[in-house]
């Protein structure tokens, strides 16, 4: 029995419940959605709903998975730790010496990603400085580095890239060369190790560290060390520009009226990742829902398959830092105890990540369940983009089902 057979079997109440949930949200919370659910290593749901720009969503639609990309960067870095190439508590500047060349830096208030306005620094931090040599890879992975959450890197990388269908070369090397000196010298927003502040900048630097350690572009490292070993043939950077997919095979996202002045379609939604050539440690990957679920399943069942030491893998998916119920493993989000995007019923040790475009990966070790839900909710505009209630509703329904779901007989 395949997952499709199981889902569509007569009298299956889960199908009706999922269709009912999607009917409430398609066109309201998002235009398109693809859902893949695995239970005890087998696919039990693999379906899509909705349409956009005249194209219907299918289980094979490629979605911009946004910050779920961070988990792929995390995985290749943890492989390097497992092989002894680098240590969790090594300083970031040991691999990226340029990060520390300017010495102690001031603490400022960061920048709002939506308005671009600079934010006020907390008064008790205003006169402090940070020695960048204190920042370790553990700080970066737990988002306790003190680095800013976001900065407008795209403003310093050169002209707006061509649309992806133009198939013109993206000079990512030159763009990164423009950006890195700026990224290396951003002011901090807190002392390292003090609190969890989710940081795109930190993961951008982690991706750069992977490139330096492997002496290969990040895209090639992820392809060789994660995608190919797991058979994730439908996960990729720059799907349209590379010629591996058409626009119609990808889910469009936001109308970018601020920078690109076009509908974002077939290219990464995140401005900074797009400005750097579509590949960065924090964003850029496109994938199908089932590929994301299989990635989650690998972390649930066989971390050794990923080349990550078992003890290190256990650290990655359990709480290593927490600030006001924001719980972090190494790269992974650990389910909040209150008002979690994974709902109320997933176990407290569930782990995963969300993406700003409207994507979610949650893994529940107690239920042996993996849920990958990909949407393009940001298509409707980031100002009205509010997927939280949908995510909670969906995961609560699936948690009940996974508690007593039968196991499919055939891996899909």
What would you say about this model in short?
Helices cover 29% and strands 15% of the residues. By secondary structure, it is an alpha+beta fold.
Please give the structural blueprint.
Layout: H1 3-7, H2 13-25, E1 32-39, E2 42-52, E3 55-56, E4 63-64, H3 69-82, E5 105-106, E6 129-130, H4 137-141, H5 172-184, H6 200-214, H7 218-230, E7 235-237, E8 255-256, E9 262-263, H8 271-275, E10 285-287, H9 289-301, H10 310-316, E11 321-323, E12 326-328, E13 333-334, E14 351-355, E15 359-364, E16 369-375, H11 388-402
Antiparallel strand pairs: 1-2, 1-16, 2-3, 4-10, 5-6, 7-10, 8-9, 11-12, 12-13, 13-14, 14-15, 15-16
Can you put this structure into words, describing what you see?
A nine-stranded antiparallel sheet has the order 3-2-1-16-15-14-13-12-11, with helices on both faces. By secondary structure, the chain is an alpha+beta fold. It has two domains: about 5-70 and about 220-400, Beta-lactamase (3-Layer(aba) Sandwich); about 70-215, Beta-lactamase (3-Layer(aba) Sandwich). It has helices at about 5, 15-25, 70-80, 135-140, 170-185, 200-215, 220-230, 270-275, 290-300, 310-315, 390-400, and strands at about 30-40, 40-50, 55, 65, 105, 130, 235, 255, 260-265, 285, 320-325, 325-330, 335, 350-355, 360-365, 370-375. The model is unreliable at about 1-10 and about 405-410 (pLDDT under 50). The longest helix has 15 residues, at about 200-215. The chain contains eleven helices and 16 strands. Helix 2 (about 15-25) runs antiparallel to helix 11 (about 390-400) and helix 3 (about 70-80) packs across helix 7.
